[in-house]
Specification:
Metaxin_GST; 451 residues; transport; mitochondrion; 18 helices; four-stranded mixed beta sheet
Amino acid sequence: MVLQLHVWGPAFGLPSIDAECTASVAYFNRIVPQAHWVLVADYDTSISPQNEYPLLIDGSTYVTGFTNIVSHLRNHHSGAYDLDYHLTSEQQTDRTAFVSFLQSAATPLVDLSLYVSSENYSAATSSSYTAILPWYLNYTIPPTRRDLARSRTAHLGLSSLDVSLQRDVAGPGSMSLGSDFEAAKRDAGIPTADTGAQPNMLSMGRGKGLQGFLSSPIYAARFKLDTLTNELLEPLFELLGKKDYLLEGGRPSSLDCLAFGYLATMFYPTLPQAWLKEALQLRYPRLVRYISRLREELLGREDIQAADVWTISSSKTKNEASITDTRNSVGLRLPWHPRSARPLHTTLKRATDEMVSNLPLVAKLLPQDAVIQASNTNISTTIPSSLPSPILMKTLRIFTAAIVGTFTGIAIVHRRNPRDGDLIFWALRPGGGGLGEAGDLLRALAYQLPR
C-alpha cells in the first residue's frame, strides 16, 4: 500500500514552510522508495487527528508529528524504513535526547523569526502562505499560526520584535532590527559597521551614552536573541565536530533529518531581520556546510517553487502517468501528488467555518474542545473539560470574599476599639447570627453550592 505524507506547502525553496514537515520529507526521500509513497501539499487539517501537519496516512492509520511518524515506520514495516537501524544503543539514547532538545530549543527561534517578527512576517511569511493556500484560508490560517507562535514565545520577553504592537508610529517595514541596532549604537557614540568614526562612548552629553545604549530595548532584544541562538547552535556544533553527520560519520539518521528541517528553515528564507542566518554564517560556518550537504543528499539541489507544486496538488487528474509527466515538465523530483477531491459542500462548510470562527465576537461564543494525544500512542482523542463549572467557581469566589471581608472587618473594629478580656467569635447560626443583610447574603450563597 502506498504511504501518503501530507505537509504544509513549499516555501523558501524547501518542500514545506514548516520545519518538521521538511524533516519528514527528507526522511521519506532518504529511506522510502518513491514507488511506495506520495507527497501531498495540503491545507485541510480536518483530516489530521491533531489538526496539524505533517500527517502520515498508512491505510486506516493516521499519524501526526515527525517523531510519531518515524516511530510508526520503524515499528510497523519490519524495520525496512528505519533510518536509525545502524545506531548503537548509546547513539540511540543520544538521538532521543537531541530530538527533544531540538524541538524545545529550535521551535521558539523559528517562531520568533518567521511569525513574531512583524517585518519578517509581512515581508516573507505571509506572502509564502498566500502561495500555498486558497484565498479564503489566508484570512485564518496564517494569523492563527502567528498567534500560536506568540503564545509559545511569550515567556521569552521578546515581544519588541512585534513592531505592529510596539512601533505604530514608524509603521511596519520602516526599519529592521539590525538598522535599529546600528542606530542605537550611533546614538550612544559607538562606531557602527558603516562608519569609521572614532568612538565617543564617554560623551554623555551627546546621544544616550553607553549606559543608555545597553539598556535600550533593541540591544536587549538582540542580546537575548544571540543568547538563544547560541544555546541551540553550540551543542549541535560540538556534536557534529568534524564528522559528516551528527551521530555517526558514515550515514545520516533521523536526527540529521530533523536538524536539517529546523536549520534549513532558519538559513534559507530571505528575511529583513536575518539574525539566525547571520549567526550561522558568522559563527558556525561548519553548520552551514552541513546544511548544504544534507540538502543535496536528502532532497537534491532543486529549488522547489510553490507555483509548480500547486499545479500538481490542485490537479483533478487520477492518471499516474499524467501526474508523472507534469512533475517532470516542471523539474520536480519528489513524488508530489494531487490532493484527494473533497465534496463541494465540505469545502464551502470549511470556508464558512473558518471565516465565522475568526470573527472577534463569534469566536468567543463557540465551544472549544481540548485535543490531546495519549502518550506512546498515535491516537488522539477529544475529552470534555474536567474543570469545575465557571458558575460554581464564581459563586465560591464570592462566598470566600464575603467570609474574608467579614472577619477582616471584625478584626479592624476590634483593633480600633480594644476592650479588656478575651475576644470571643460566636458561631454563625442559620438566622444570620445578627449580621443582618450580610447574614442573609451568606445564607443565600450557601444554598447555591452543590450538596
